[in-house]
Amino acid sequence: MADTATVFIDGESGTTGLGIRTRLEAFAGVALRSLTGERRKDPAARQAMMREVDLVVLCLPDDAAKESTRLADELGADAPKLLDASTAHRVDPAWAYGFPEMAPGQAAKVAAARKVSNPGCYPTGAIALIRPLVAAGVMAADHPIAINAVSGYSGGGKAMIEAHVATGGPSFELYGMGFEHKHVPETQLYTGLSRRPIFIPSVGHFRQGMLVSVPLHLDTLAGKPKGADLHAILAAHFKGSTLVRVLPTQPAERLTAEDLNDTDLLELRVYANEAHRQALLVARLDNLGKGASGAAVQNIALMLGLAHTAATAREMAHA
User: Fold this and answer.
1) Distance between CA 111 and CA 26 in Å, rounded?
2) Which residues, in sequence order, are bridge partners of residue 192?
3) What is the pTM of this model?
4) How far is the C-alpha of 54 from the C-alpha of 56, rounded, in Å?
5) Does the pLDDT at position 319 exceed 60?
6) Which pLDDT tens digit goes with each residue over 55-76?
7) Could you give the dihedral angle defined by the CA atoms of residues 160, 163, 169 and 173, in that order, rounded to the nearest 10 degrees?
8) What is the pLDDT of residue 317?
9) CA-to-CA distance for 164 and 170, rounded, in angstroms?
């Protein structure tokens, strides 16, 4: 690969695409390529651009992402690497899952892959909380799990963003009560759960930020662990990570969803009441950071062999 890597964001005008572009502009050694006007929708122009770049980011609806993948595949040996930010390929075994901290060796898989699927925002938090417990044998694969989460409205697409900006939108709303949210398949697969988790998301009237929480009865887990044991498992799993942090907790503290906005950090906490033998696992992240554009740039850096050094001032403050 040349000293300067070239990247084309297919669908760069959306929220995630704009976030990726802004972050990539902080990288030396990356040249961004773009199409203008109607050429953005022209398959021939997009395919010609794909032939000229090292990596293409797909910030598109699922069907359009599949079509762009087909255009890239037609190039054969001239095909660029692909990073798909849609849900189209997240459970496809031909694509590496772009959560580098998920498991030992996952970052190397992302670095070596030609096709990487960027994780969803909700699954990022849920997988980080649940997978280490399943891998450690403390949580059975068929353990019944309920995942609750709240996100800022920027994760809901153009219509939701416009509704909140134009009219104020509802202060809080639940959705996905049909139990068919598109993030459930990747959540189940990468947590290692054999039993489909219950996932009910919600949206608050704030632009960005996210909390994902998983309540547990400690006596239903193998070995009847204490909250400190769960904390130790998470801490060991993510030891050495610069972006995923397992933090100490205070039962009386309150968590707000927006404290990690404009960072690419993911914070994990374990709250427990030993008298009642109950615990709550909580993940906090920016749904536009580690939940979308930030994760994408982390994966791009791995795929292109670049140092991921684009830490923001807010991340430095959280160090």
Assistant:
1) 20
2) none
3) 0.93
4) 7
5) no
6) 999 999 999 999 999 999 999 9
7) -20
8) 47
9) 7
Tokens representing residue 41 in the block: 């929708």
Q: How far does Cα 307 stand from its chain's mean position? A: 20
What span, in angstroms and rounded, lies between the C-alpha atoms of 118 and 82?
10
164 residue type, one letter? H
For 21, the token pair is 């572009």
- How far, in Å, CA of 83 to CA of 98, rounded? 9
Rounded alpha-carbon distances, angstroms, from residue 120 to 88, 94, 117, 211: 11, 18, 9, 14
Q: What is the 3-state secondary structure (H, E, C) of 221-277?
A: CCCCCCHHHHHHHHHHHCCCCCCEEECCCCCCCCCCCCCCCCCCCEEEEEEEECCCC
The 3-state DSSP class for residue 306 equals coil
The Cα 193–Cα 110 span in angstroms is 22
Residues involved in catalysis: 121
> 273: closest CA among 223, 228, 233?
228
* Alpha carbons 153 and 184: distance in angstroms, whole number: 19
Alpha carbon 130 to chain centroid, angstroms: 15
**Residues 25-37: tens digit of each pLDDT:** 988 889 999 998 8
The model's pLDDT over 206-254, given as tens digits with 9 standing for 90+, comes to 999 999 999 999 999 999 999 999 999 999 999 999 999 999 988 878 9
Bridge partners for 57 per DSSP: 9, 83
